[in-house]
Structures are given as C-alpha cells and as structure tokens.
Amino acid sequence: MSRDFISGLRARKPDVQAAFVSEYGPRVYAFILDVVGDTDDADELTADVFLKAFKAIRGYDSSKASLATWLLRIAHNAAISHLRHPKLPTSPLERAPDTPDTEPYEDPRIELLHRAIGLLAPDDRSLVHLHYFENARLSDIAYALGITEGAATVRLHRIRAKLKKLIENDYGE
Q1: Do residues 73 and 144 lie in contact, with contact meaning Cβ atoms separated by under 8 Å?
Q2: I need a labelling partner for 23 at 20 to 30 A (CA). Which of 16, 69, 104, 133 fits?
C-alpha cells in the first residue's frame, strides 16, 4: 500500500491524497494532540503536516524509514516548532456546548498516568507516544525524533523514572 501512496502522492493525485489523509490522519492527530495538548492546535497542525508531506514526498526515501515513520517525523517537528513559537491565541468560531474535550477514564490510575505524561516536556511526550501508543521500534523513534537509538533508549529510561516520581508525588505513595 505504501508504494501506491508514494507514486500517487508524487503524481499529486487528489484521490490518493485523500486516501493518505484518511489512512494516516488519526495517527498523526493523536500524536500531535499528545504533544501539544490542545485539540484546536492539533487540528491545525495535522493539516499542516499533510501539506508539508505532500510538498516533500519527492524527497522521501523508503530505505531510511517507513512512510508512517517519515510522516510522524514531520508531525514531531511541526509540534515542537509550534510549542517553541506559539501563535497568538484564538478562539474557535464554533464549539458544541455539551461536548467535553476529553472523556473521563474508568480507571483513576489511567487518568493519573495521562496527567503525569502531560507534565513531561514535549520531546518526552513525543517519545512516550511513539513507544507506547504507536508501538514504534526504537530505530523508528530515533529517526522520527532525529536522535540516535542509544539516546532514545536512555531518554525512555529517564522518562519512566520521571513518570514514576510524578505519579508517586501525586498519588502520595
């Protein structure tokens, strides 16, 4: 399927672009939302990521990373850039009044974990998302974040220790 996407995207076929967004859009959005923590920003950044991907597809090299990993690298860079250089705050034009931004978790430990992850630095949230929610290999994580596999392993170990400390402080154990 990736080869079909690549050739269709390089040919700038609208139906292939739409299928590509349908296939990878939810993953990219979830990743960005975990990093930036705001649904409106995640919506905007997700659209930006796909526009960047469409423009950069000619430079994609399948020997370096899978299409999904390449796309998540673009998403990571966009999210981190957004957090480093925030735009002026805007308010959404429409918002359903009864729609909560997040759904409550049945298990309070999961809520506690998500709160702790939200306290991490954006780069660390990216690494956690890729490792635990995308089940990405360390080599793919390293590529997406622009670091070495060794650095990814060390950072993951440190993040786990930091999360443990954050949860213990919050939970009182």
Answers
A1: yes
A2: 104
For residue 131, what is the DSSP state?
Answer: I
pLDDT of residue 15: 92
pTM over 0.90: no
The full set of domains in the chain, from first to last, is: 1-96 (1.10.1740.10), 102-173 (1.10.10.10)
Whole-number Å distance between alpha carbons of 59 and 11: 13
Task: Classify the C-alpha dihedral 138-151-149-139 as positive or negative.
Answer: positive
Q: Cα separation of 123 and 80, whole Å? A: 7
**d(Cα 73, Cα 92) in Å, to the nearest integer?**
28
DSSP H helices, 37-107, are 39-56, 67-84
CA distance 36 to 86: 10
**Angle subtended by helix axes 138-145 and 67-84, to nearest 10:** 40
Query: pLDDT, tens digit, for every residue of 107-166?
Result: 777 788 888 888 888 889 989 989 988 888 889 899 988 899 999 999 999 999 998 888
